[in-house]
């Protein structure tokens, strides 16, 4: 009996190692162009571009299925960077997607909050904490300023407050670009 269990355990370890090796050996890397485009986008995940987040928008741009001027949070600066990267002509921000606004963070008037959790459900980056029938609050460093929490709030207790640029917030304007080893070799 003990030998059978030992053989089964050894077989599981061998199989796991083989599958792990196969997963590493055949891992597919992301498209470097999509990664570069995504690094330029502001990572607000707001959907104002017509896509469910920055990565799907980056994929559509790379495939030529989307214009580079559909991201209000990225604004003209982001459009210029995308145009430079892709060798395309600069186009002003598309009015149908919104207007460029200063970087902001959501703030909840906690005295007015009824704890409905609708804002929590709407937040694409989990920057709102709270519980049903309890007040909610924003984790400011996590908030991307997407404004998706505003429409579902039944008591209008959420407002957007502009963020002053400081040492702590500069990264919100200039996303950190992570370079993979393959990108380093290609450079």
TrEMBL record:
Q: Where does [4Fe-4S] cluster 1 bind?
A: 46, 49, 54, 71
What's a GO biological-process term for it?
electron transport chain
Q: Where is the 4Fe-4S ferredoxin-type domain?
A: 104-133, 135-163
User: Which stretches make up the 4Fe-4S domain?
Assistant: 29-88
GO: which molecular function terms? Answer: 4 iron, 4 sulfur cluster binding; electron transfer activity; metal ion binding
UniProt KW keywords: 4Fe-4S, Cell inner membrane, Cell membrane, Electron transport, Iron, Iron-sulfur, Membrane, Metal-binding, Repeat, Translocase, Transport
Q: What Enzyme Commission number(s) does the record list for this chain?
A: 7.-.-.-
The first-level EC class reads translocase
| A Pfam family per the record | FeS
- The UniProt record gives the binding positions of [4Fe-4S] cluster 2 as 113, 116, 119, 153
Question: Where [4Fe-4S] cluster 3 is bound, by residue?
Answer: 123, 143, 146, 149
Cofactor(s) needed, names only, are: [4Fe-4S] cluster
Q: InterPro entries recorded for this chain?
A: 4Fe-4S_dom (IPR007202), 4Fe4S_Fe-S-bd (IPR017896), 4Fe4S_Fe_S_CS (IPR017900), Elect_transpt_cplx_RnfB/RsxB (IPR010207), RnfB/RsxB_Proteobac (IPR016463), RnfB_subfamily (IPR050294)
Protein family (similarity comment): Belongs to the 4Fe4S bacterial-type ferredoxin family. RnfB subfamily.
Assembly information from the UniProt record: The complex is composed of six subunits: RnfA, RnfB, RnfC, RnfD, RnfE and RnfG.
Q: What does this protein do?
A: Part of a membrane-bound complex that couples electron transfer with translocation of ions across the membrane.
Could you tell me what this protein is called?
Ion-translocating oxidoreductase complex subunit B
Q: Give the organism, scientific name.
A: Sulfuritalea hydrogenivorans sk43H
């Amino acid at each position: 009996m003990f030998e059978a269990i030992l053989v089964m355990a050894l077989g599981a370890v061998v199989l796991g190692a083989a599958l792990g090796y196969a997963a590493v050996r055949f891992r597919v890397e992301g498209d470097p162009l999509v990664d570069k485009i995504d690094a330029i986008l502001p990572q607000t995940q707001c959907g104002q571009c017509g896509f469910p987040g920055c990565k799907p928008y980056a994929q559509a741009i790379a495939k030529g299925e989307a214009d580079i001027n559909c991201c209000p949070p990225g604004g003209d600066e982001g459009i210029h960077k995308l145009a430079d990267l892709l060798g395309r002509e600069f186009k002003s921000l598309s009015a149908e997607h919104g207007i460029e606004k200063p970087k902001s963070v959501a703030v909840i008037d906690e005295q007015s909050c009824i704890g409905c959790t609708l804002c929590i459900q709407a937040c694409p980056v989990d920057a709102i904490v709270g519980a049903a029938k309890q007040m909610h609050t924003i984790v400011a460093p996590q908030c991307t300023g997407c404004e998706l929490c505003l429409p579902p709030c039944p008591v209008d207790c959420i407002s957007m407050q502009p963020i002053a640029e400081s040492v702590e917030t500069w990264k919100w304007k200039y996303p950190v670009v992570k370079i993979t080893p393959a990108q380093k070799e290609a450079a």
